[in-house]
Amino acid sequence: MHDIRAIRENPAAFDAALARRGLSPMSDRILSLDADRRARIVAAETAQAEQNRASKEVGAAKARGDDAEFERLRTLVAEKKADVTRMQAEASLLDGRLRDLLMEIPNLPLDSVPDGKDENDNVELRRWGNPRAFDFTPVEHFEIAGVRPGMDFETAAKLSGSRFVVLKGGVARIHRALAQFMLDLHVTKHDLQETWTPVLVLEDMMVGTGQLPKFGEDSYLTREGYWLIPTSEVTLTNTVNGDLVDHATLPRRMVAHSQCFRSEAGSAGRDTTGMLRQHQFEKVEMVSITDADTGVAEHDRMTRCAEAVLEALDLPYRTVVLCTGDMGFGARITHDLEVWLPGQDKYREISSVSYCGDFQARRMNARYRSDKTGKPEFVHTLNGSGLAVGRTLIAVLENGQQADGSVVLPAALHPYLGGATVLGADGRLG
Q: Domain spanning 119-423 has what CATH number?
């Protein structure tokens, strides 16, 4: 959510930042609503002062036997009390309307973010590794002979419908091994605190990280009123919801492996084959909570944590910075990691690492007491995939595929698979 004081101080800068996102100016509408709200507050305060003054005079009029003045003042007190109640209610209504409006407006990009309309305007920062030269035509993950026995879309469709998968045997073990490997790497090498959180959350938690109110259709709501998390960004970030944390405890760096649930409402007709885009999937998520001074540096650090996973698995990738038109709602800057998928002959997103500034913290009312000023300030938040487990599985399978339908597995996974180095063409590990 945005700081109304910053909009008051520099509405032109606010509108200019929105324009970089392709949005029309909004400061006039926001400030008009804010002015109406503040006028009601001032009027209520004035009426309250008049009520208090008249209340004091009532007793004096009674004491001196001035019945006419006593009755006039009693009537005035009642009128002012009604005015206060009415104007406070109007101010509260306008406050809610202003908050709702500010909740619907995306975060403002950093100056360093490149301008652009869509993914075609994203800017590549670097590449790592070289795509393998195949002496045969590589296929997509679900077409590999050794993968077919362990990746069952037909049974999943019978159980749950489209965009689900049942993993079995060797493929299921590789999937599990990947998650364990990622967690161990982040905990032992990157000093992230392993965390386990619920997948069902209260509505306020979804509001806190920006999934609600604007993107409710992208997530699942249970009949009991709980929301299924689209990623553990929701739970990890909201661990500081409503808190005033000790500055000395920052940064807080967390990692969690969780089930994730997304309706994929905006992806009709995209990635309908294979398990690239699913309603239920697993992700190893990183979240950092920082102070106002270290958030941007933490973003670079978190990006490197995600890149390290791909490098350890020997998966070629590129890192891009998203342009203003392709960034997510809550981000001020986002780095996407795109892994090479030989079956598709292209790089595909496997991680998004975003710095949100104090945007989420304002929604959560999450603060720290600054060591510099001694005053409460909003924390800054970051989130990033480290990595999406299913997409990493796809990348491992496609990049390691052999002409006979087997898959050579990355050395980093061998200890997690009982020493197995290959997924055979028959679907068995060996």
A: 3.30.930.10
Contact present, 166 and 390 (Cβ < 8 Å): no
- Please report which confidence band the pLDDT of residue 267 belongs to, taking 50, 70 and 90 as the band edges: low
217-244 pLDDT, tens digit each: 999 999 999 999 999 999 999 999 999 9
Under 8 Å between Cβ of 326 and 352: no
Amino acid (1-letter code) at residue 212: L
* Token representation of residue 9: 């101080």
CATH H-level superfamily of 4-103: Serine-tRNA synthetase, tRNA binding domain (1.10.287.40)
In the predicted structure, residue 279 carries a pLDDT above the cut 90: yes
Pairing of strands 317-321, 407-408: unpaired
**Annotated domain spans of the chain:** 4-103, 119-423
Can you read off the two tokens belonging to residue 378? 């909003």
131 prior amide bond cis, ω within 30: no
Backbone angles phi, psi at 232, to 5 degrees: -75, 5
With beta carbons less than 8 A apart as the criterion, state whether 121 and 325 touch. yes
